[in-house]
Amino acid sequence: MLLESFDPTQIQDLDGARQAIVMLLNLVETLKTENQELREQVQRLRDEINRLKGEQGKPVIKPNK
């Protein structure tokens, strides 16, 4: 992961702080994307389990026009 090479004690100036912030924001974005994908996968698996049990799945609600 990106944090393996991150050492906050090495931040000595504004440029170093900017680089650290950019690195951390990139990591947050990556983790957020991964988390969303995993949430969607969990929901698909829950829906599949319910379908296999013979229960109704999550209803598809169309947006208002």
Fill in the keyword field for this structure.
single chain, mainly alpha, about 60 residues
N-C termini distance:
45 Å
Describe the main β-sheet briefly. Answer: none
User: What's the tally of helices?
Assistant: 1
The stretches of 5 or more residues where confidence is low (pLDDT under 50) are: none
Structural class of the helices, strands and pairings? mainly alpha
General shape: elongated
Fraction in beta strands = under 5%
- Please provide the count of β strands: 0
Overall mean pLDDT stands at 88
Order of helices and strands: H
Radius of gyration: 21 Å
Helix content: 55-70%
Question: What can you tell me about this protein's structure?
Answer:
The chain has a domain at 16-56. The chain contains 1 helix and no strands. The radius of gyration is 21 Å and the shape is elongated. The N and C termini lie far apart (45 Å). It is 60% helix and 0% strand. It is an all-alpha fold and 65 residues long. The model has no long low-confidence stretch (mean pLDDT 88).
Write the layout of secondary structure elements.
Blueprint: H1 14-52
Short summary of the structure?
The protein has one helix spanning 14-52.
